[in-house]
């Protein structure tokens, strides 16, 4: 090793440390958004199942047509979200849709804003992201 090369590692250490900190911050924020996305999927699925309570079973059992009160379903979804792990989730849509095999489905779409932990400290203007998840449940099967 030449005498003039001594101490060059000390000069590179701060740059390497800064790069590792930035990568760590990115990993933390991406992981947080992935966890929240999975939680939102679970909440949307649970809310869709709960919203089946808005189905008029008396009419259906008597041989009548399928009746579904969407305003009641929306209320049930809101109650389900409020009592769950993500009370800040926003209801985008609660609809009954027909599928190609003629089995109607109740579809619930939710949105959640996720605030990043580390990104606001980094250069740029990224401090949050918005996640949207849709889950469906078959009404009759």
What is the number of domains? Answer: 1
For the biggest sheet, the summary is: 3 strands, antiparallel
Shape: rod-shaped
Strand content: 15-25%
CA-CA gap between termini: 76 Å
Q: Strand order, biggest sheet?
A: 1-2-3
Task: Give a count of the beta strands, DSSP E runs of length 2 or more.
Answer: 3
Arithmetic mean of pLDDT: 87
Total helical segments: 3
Low-confidence stretches: none
Structural class: alpha+beta
SSE arrangement, N to C = HHHEEE
Return Rg in Å: 25 Å
Helix content: 40-55%
Question: What attributes characterize this protein structure?
Answer:
141 residues; alpha+beta; three-stranded antiparallel β-sheet
Structure description:
This protein is α+β, with helices and mostly antiparallel strands and 141 residues long. It has one domain (3-138). It has three helices and three strands, in the order H-H-H-E-E-E. Strands 1-2-3 form a three-stranded antiparallel β-sheet, with helices on one face. The longest helix is centred in the first third of the chain and has 44 residues, at 8-51. It is rod-shaped and about 95 Å long.
């Amino acid at each position: 090793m030449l005498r003039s090369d001594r101490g060059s590692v000390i000069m590179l250490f701060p740059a390497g440390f800064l790069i590792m900190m930035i990568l760590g911050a990115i990993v933390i924020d991406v992981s947080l958004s992935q966890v929240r996305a999975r939680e939102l999927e679970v909440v949307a699925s649970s809310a869709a199942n709960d919203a089946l309570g808005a189905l008029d079973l008396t009419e259906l059992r008597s041989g009548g047509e399928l009746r579904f009160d969407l305003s009641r379903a929306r209320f049930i979804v809101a109650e389900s979200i409020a009592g769950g792990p993500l009370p800040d989730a926003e209801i985008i849509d609660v609809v009954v849709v027909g599928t190609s095999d003629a089995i109607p489905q109740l579809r619930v779409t939710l949105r959640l804003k996720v605030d990043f932990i580390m990104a606001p400290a980094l250069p740029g203007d990224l401090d949050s992201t918005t996640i949207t998840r849709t889950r469906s449940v078959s009404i009759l099967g």
